[in-house]
Amino acid sequence: MKIICLKATPVSLPFVKPMIWPYGIWPGLTCVIVEIETDEGLVGIGESAVLFKPVEAIIAHLRAFESYLVDEDPFDVERISKKLRLLGGWQYSRVYGNYALSGVDTALWDIKGKACGRPLYKLLGGAVREQIPVIKYLIKDAPEVMAQVARDAVTDGYETLYMKFTTIPELIDAIVAVREAVGYQPKLRIDFNQTLSPGYAVKLISDLEKYNIEFIEQPVLADDLDGLKYVRDSVRVPIAADEACHNLYDTFQVIKKGAADIIHVDPRTHDGILDAKKAAGIAEAAGLPVVLHSTTEAGIAQSMFLHVAASTPNFILANQSIYDNLADDYIRPGALRIKQGYMSVPQGPGVGVELDPEKVGKYHELFKEFGTYTTFGLKTEELPKASLRVLPSY
């Protein structure tokens, strides 16, 4: 079996509610659907994340990758992965390159699963679990609104709540409101996205300890492993590394330094699915749990994430997901379901989902009309009209 061509289609999917974090407002998800065709008629599908403008740069990368893919055997994932990154030069811009390459990597694995007639997790070691716990993201809003969302989430079966830091008064008001609404039993995580100095992080996290925080995510700069270790050694709340371990090599350094209690793993910032599995294995050897990090996943990427978590022993905590904030998806027979805080692993061959051509066309047209939904720097008055149509209250 040989690869003969690659197709890339950008789509934009609005969120139900714009997400607010320290770097701006995020009105929706833009991604590039990757289709890789073989000479035997199998077509693998993947999803490349688009976190930064312009999306044309991601598409240009994918078109450049095609010349490295043609005539390769899609089963040779390790060979192709190294070839794309080393000959393509993406080891020098790993995270950005990997966002583009993630669609290729997933599509190759999808071909393998379809060729074998088996779901992806069966090729990654088999099922450790088939139900994957996910968080409920409490999107920034008025404290009473966040409290009601938290109350509804707990009623629906979610066991873990998650919020992002914006300002200290807003954060504390939100935590107080949520704890008053749901009590102290549901787990609560706070993500600081590298916004604190080590000394201030220690003080603030110590103050937050009384609210029974499950863990704090990436309080200091990703490159400051000494600072991250200082925070971990100085507080009683567990510390998770996210941006500090964007790939296998970073993960090794974080664990070697003793800088975190929990390791975030993301197959789309890592060098693909196998690299993410290797990082999880290093963490397992160190006795640390891993958590899937979300970089806005639509149907293909979310399905791939579920297969990775299903086949990896130390995904013992709830995983990040913002999937329930998508207004729609481009897959059939429809959007994946979250039931009582869990997602089921798709059982079809490969990633287990298919493209809905009508939906792909619809959201490709939305992309052409309104452009890229970016995660950085957008102000409220700059929200695309597409989001405003979906969200009349904003």
Give structural attributes:
15 strands; disordered C terminus; 394 residues; alpha/beta; globular; three-stranded antiparallel β-sheet; seven-stranded parallel β-sheet; 40% helix
Write up what this structure looks like.
- The chain is an alpha/beta fold.
- The protein is built from 13 helices and 15 strands.
- The protein has helices at residues 55-69, 77-87, 94-116, 120-123, 143-155, 168-182, 198-208, 225-234, 248-257, 273-285, 299-310, 357-370, 385-390; strands at 3-21, 24-38, 43-49, 131-133, 136-137, 160-164, 187-191, 215-217, 239-241, 262-265, 290-292, 331-332, 338-339, 342-344, 354-355.
- A 7-stranded parallel β-sheet has the order 5-6-7-8-9-10-11, with helices on one face. A 3-stranded antiparallel β-sheet has the order 1-2-3.
- Helix 1 packs across helix 3, helix 7 (198-208) packs parallel to helix 8 and helix 9 (248-257) packs parallel to helix 10.
- It is globular and about 60 Å long.
Q: Unreliable stretches, pLDDT < 50, 5 or more residues?
A: 383-394
Helix-and-strand structural type: alpha/beta
Q: How large is the share of residues in beta strands?
A: 15-25%
Terminal CA distance reads 51 Å
Topology:
Layout lengths: L2 E19 L2 E15 L4 E7 L5 H15 L7 H11 L6 H23 L3 H4 L7 E3 L2 E2 L5 H13 L4 E5 L3 H15 L4 E5 L6 H11 L6 E3 L7 H10 L4 E3 L6 H10 L4 E4 L7 H13 L4 E3 L6 H12 L20 E2 L5 E2 L2 E3 L9 E2 L1 H14 L14 H6 L4
Parallel strand pairs: 5-6, 6-7, 7-8, 8-9, 9-10, 10-11
Antiparallel strand pairs: 1-2, 2-3, 4-14, 12-15, 13-14
Helix pairs in contact: 1-3, 2-3, 5-6, 7-8, 9-10
